[in-house]
Write a structure and sequence with these properties.
Length: 285
């Protein structure tokens, strides 16, 4: 058992806890998944009064659709730009370009997160997905704003940490699509509510966990700190995780008790939308 643990640490130290391999994986996932939002925007008739987006404003379906359009469109740029912002060579050799890309990242993230928040609070799939997507919007906005403020203060080690956390939320889109694709090909198919819970909660929570481990394992320059310091840096992680889970559970309880979701109402399944369909399939959460 001890040998297995040592072998795992050795593999991680050599291949995972360094800047090159995680960066390549980020770039691959971001590049591949940046195409999906364009396909959705091309197919979904969001410029109509059809009730497609979550009913943040129940009597204004076109406004809801526009919020969804802005959220999806503006999320593409930060997803694609993120890996390049973490590229050490670009930061060193082209600092002006790094700053410009960072400013674009910050603006698009803040607007995309802000437009997604009212949609999240009106999500029709249930209380847990509603709070999951709502928390994602809040932490995405907060982490991005803190990353920007730390950069303005020239506190670059803190800027790096908050940027990693911000991009963990940005990268949640990759997990959302991945979970949906994988679970659709499982037989028997899982319950639709379970899929939404995985997409709304674990898509970003799992990313944040990995990022916190990576932050604990590396210096500001992305160099592995060594096993002893790594284990020491991990000590605050369980407390942070418990605090987040407690806040999440309290939010779910409050939402369920005072703002219940109408689970009997049908909504448009955006996964099946096409512009030329005469009949849009309806689905229950």
């Amino acid at each position: 058992m001890l040998n297995s643990i040592k072998a795992f640490f050795g593999f991680s130290e050599k291949y995972v806890l360094n800047e090159a391999l995680p960066w390549l994986l980020l770039l691959l996932g971001a590049t591949l998944m940046s195409v999906a939002p364009f396909l959705f925007l091309a197919e979904a008739p969001l410029m109509t009064d059809m009730e497609i987006a979550s009913p943040a404003f129940p009597s204004l379906p076109r406004v809801n659709n526009m919020l969804l359009f802005l959220h999806v469109l503006l999320a593409i740029l930060p997803l694609a730009l993120g890996p390049w912002l973490f590229n050490a060579r670009l930061r060193r050799d082209r600092p002006a370009l790094h700053r410009f890309m960072g400013q674009v990242y910050v603006v698009t993230c803040l607007v995309s997160a802000a437009t997604s928040f009212p949609l999240a609070l009106a999500h029709p799939s249930g209380t847990v997905p509603r709070i999951g997507f709502g928390f994602l919007a809040l932490v995405w906005f907060g982490f991005t704003l803190l990353a920007y403020l730390r950069a303005r203060q020239k506190d670059f080690p803190a800027h790096r940490m908050w940027m990693l956390r911000s991009y963990a939320c940005t990268y949640a889109f990759v997990n959302v699509k991945l979970y949906g694709y994988v679970l659709q090909h499982i037989y028997p198919p899982p319950d639709a509510l379970l899929v939404k819970i995985l997409q709304s909660c674990f898509s970003w929570m799992s990313n944040l966990l990995l990022v916190e481990i990576y932050i604990a394992a590396t210096t500001y320059m992305g160099v592995y700190v060594g096993r002893k310091m790594f284990l020491k840096n991990l000590r605050p992680l369980p407390v942070r995780a418990v605090v987040l889970l407690v806040l999440f559970v309290v939010a779910v309880w409050v939402s369920h008790a005072y703002f219940p979701v109408d689970m009997g109402k049908h909504y448009v399944d955006v996964r099946n939308l096409t512009r030329d369909m005469g009949m849009i399939p309806m689905a229950k959460p």
